[in-house]
Amino acid sequence: MSQVQPSEEKNIFTHLKTMSECIQLSFAVCRIGIYTCFRALCCKGPPPPRPEYDLVCIGLTGSGKTSLLSQLCSESPENIVSTTGFSIKAVPFQNAILNVKELGGADNIRKYWSRYYQGSQGVIFVLDSASSEDDLETARNELHSALQHPQLCTLPFLILANHQDKPAARSVQEIKKYFELEPLARGKRWILKPCSLDDMEAVKDSFSLLINLLEERDFEPSRM
């Protein structure tokens, strides 16, 4: 049996030492990787809270306020009942939560709307774009009253021309002209958008625009 020469023994020792160092280095890299993954998965702090805004939602009976808000909250259509007094819904979005106070739109309730305006940060006005001329005129008067009300006149408005899926629906341009929005709401922050239950993505996009206006209002110098 041949004997290992001193030079060969030295080479073997050096090789084993190098291998040992590589293995230790590999284990160290693995530990760092596992620790980093663990922190990312298990030790990540909670996401920042979404801002919440208090809104008031108004419009005549039959304009579709309740149905739109219920759909945004993913509620079953079978459980939707027209609001006779008022109801409050927390409508979640990715970047905000809207606490919407919906007011009934019947004749005997509208005169009390202003009692519920206090504390609102924005307004949602829903109108039936396919309604009769008389109802459209009433909606026009109610919107004008809201736009000029002392507690609402400085707030952003989202005006939804609902029921666009109906044959008699008026276009957004027709609504804008009939409601005289350009002269009346000049200098105010308002959005007029068509909508229907058949296109909830468009409804969500409209609410996202309103959220942008609410966020802009948060950063106004007068509110700091």
Which descriptor suits the 3D outline? globular
User: Quick one: how many beta strands?
Assistant: 6
The low-pLDDT segments are none
Order of helices and strands: HEHEEHEHEHHEH
Q: What proportion strand?
A: 15-25%
Structural class call reads alpha/beta
Rg is: 31 Å
Distance between the termini: 90 Å
Average pLDDT rating: 83
Family: Belongs to the small GTPase superfamily. Arf family.
Keywords: GTP-binding, Magnesium, Metal-binding, Nucleotide-binding
Organism: Gallus gallus (Chicken)
Protein name: ADP-ribosylation factor-like protein 15
Write the SSE topology:
Elements: H1 6-42, E1 52-58, H2 65-72, E2 86-92, E3 97-103, H3 107-110, E4 122-128, H4 133-148, E5 157-162, H5 172-178, H6 181-184, E6 190-194, H7 200-218
Parallel strand pairs: 1-3, 1-4, 4-5, 5-6
Antiparallel strand pairs: 2-3
Explain what you see.
The chain has 224 residues and is an alpha/beta fold. The protein has seven helices and six strands. It has a six-stranded mixed sheet, sandwiched between helices. A hairpin with a 4-residue loop joins strand 2 and strand 3. The termini are far apart. The model has no long low-confidence stretch (mean pLDDT 83).
